[in-house]
Q: What sequence folds into this?
């Protein structure tokens, strides 16, 4: 019982911090509870019932795609290093903070249902027990009954035969809108060599 209360307290604190930083329009570091990756830096775009959408910020390309993170995967929210520099740089680059997303979703399932209408290729990181050590990439064809049906594209940019199914409950992260996903899309349109 104490564990459940502690998880609820951590989740409430995470949501409270997300709301505060979203309102302030400042970049954040999202720190993960149980992940090889320690944190993700970016701007909060949307806070849903079970996820937060982060506009990923990287020094190499600044805003570089979106990342939807299941709230239960987050341990802590902290201000980003060099907040003043980041905000000035974003202004100098004339980049909107946070960037606009052309759809509205309040749950991760709703996001998965509509994301490919606007961003053709997504990467879904799911439970490592599903034998997908780096997740799956492709076009979501359908989301029903708690399952995502996705046509896969390989890391080499080749379409894989058939449709793979991933349970929504296993989804930890969804990546879309970055240069990498766009490159996969372009490679998938090329004829096989």
A:
């Amino acid at each position: 019982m104490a564990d459940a209360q502690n998880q609820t307290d951590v989740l409430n604190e995470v949501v409270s911090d997300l709301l505060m930083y979203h309102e302030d329009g400042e970049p954040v570091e999202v720190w993960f509870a149980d992940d090889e990756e320690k944190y993700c830096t970016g701007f909060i775009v949307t806070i849903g019932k079970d996820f937060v959408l982060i506009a990923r910020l990287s020094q190499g390309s600044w805003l570089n795609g979106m990342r939807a993170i299941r709230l239960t995967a987050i341990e802590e929210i902290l201000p980003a290093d060099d907040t003043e520099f980041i905000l000035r740089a974003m202004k100098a680059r004339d980049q909107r903070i946070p960037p606009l997303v052309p759809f509205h979703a309040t749950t991760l399932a709703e996001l998965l249902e509509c994301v490919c209408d606007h961003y053709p290729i997504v990467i879904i990181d799911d439970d490592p027990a599903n034998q997908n050590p780096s997740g799956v990439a492709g076009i979501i064809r359908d989301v029903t009954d708690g399952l995502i049906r996705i046509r896969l594209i390989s890391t080499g940019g080749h379409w894989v035969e058939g449709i793979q199914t991933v349970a929504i409950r296993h989804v930890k992260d969804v990546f879309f809108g970055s240069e990498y996903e766009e490159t996969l899309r372009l490679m998938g349109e090329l004829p096989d060599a």
In short: Residues 39 and 170 are 20 Å apart (CA to CA). The chain has two domains: 1-101, 103-193.
